[in-house]
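Need residues for this backbone.
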């Protein structure tokens, strides 16, 4: 069967396609289907993911995946968090959004550079059933940003245990799943691992 990937973010779409590939599921994007973007009115990642997944499932009659994610900076009380996309002002260029994170840290005189990424992944069916999976990854903010890979805040996020930022790591290193050990690095890959665990099988 086919599923919809309910995102309009190209970087996220590429990762979700790669993450779904081992499940052998044919995926079509919300953009390719010209689906409208619902307003993200939730106050939690899981709520916004559900809004997007439900809207796509009911518009298409197909099961739909949506990811709602963000960067939570500890010294900024979790900002930009739910507003991570909005801090770019709708642009695909996150140089300004990353500069704002750095500026707000400096304004607070914050020495604490700890942060984490969250991914809430919702799979919704047209009959109203839905499942939620979550993943997170902790790390430190670097300045200036490093690397040109990935998307969003990747160049300023250095995951624990790695000398490189998500902007410097390759796709396989950022969101590849090691099925032997059942481990993955990125928040989104960890949410898909949790989905795989729920399926109680090893794809491939
Ligand atoms: P959709 O709602 O259409 O999926 P979006 O970009 O608006 O696209 P979100 O509302 O979930 O998605 O916003 C998440 C933002 O958090 C995203 O735009 C990035 O800036 C950031 N983000 C999430 N995951 C990221 C990752 O893996 N690397 C870097 N930044 C990430």
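Answer:
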């Amino acid at each position: 069967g086919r599923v919809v990937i309910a995102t309009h973010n190209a970087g996220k779409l590429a990762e979700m396609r790669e993450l779904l590939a081992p499940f052998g599921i044919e995926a079509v994007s919300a953009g390719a289907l010209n689906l409208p973007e619902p307003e993200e009115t939730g106050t939690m990642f899981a709520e916004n993911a559900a809004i997007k997944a439900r809207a796509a499932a009911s518009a298409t009659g197909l099961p739909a995946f949506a990811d709602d994610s963000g960067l939570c900076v500890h010294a900024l009380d979790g900002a930009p968090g739910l507003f991570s996309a909005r801090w770019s002002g709708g642009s695909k260029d996150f140089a300004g959004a990353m500069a704002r994170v750095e500026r707000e840290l400096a304004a607070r005189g914050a020495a604490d550079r700890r942060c984490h990424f969250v991914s809430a992944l919702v799979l919704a069916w047209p009959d109203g059933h839905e499942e939620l999976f979550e993943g997170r990854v902790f790390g430190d903010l670097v300045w200036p940003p490093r690397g040109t890979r990935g998307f969003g805040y990747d160049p300023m996020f250095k995951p624990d245990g790695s000398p490189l930022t998500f902007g410097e790591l390759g796709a396989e290193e950022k969101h590849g799943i090691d099925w032997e050990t059942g481990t993955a690095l990125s928040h989104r890959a960890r949410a898909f691992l949790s989905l795989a665990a729920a399926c109680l099988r090893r794809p491939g």
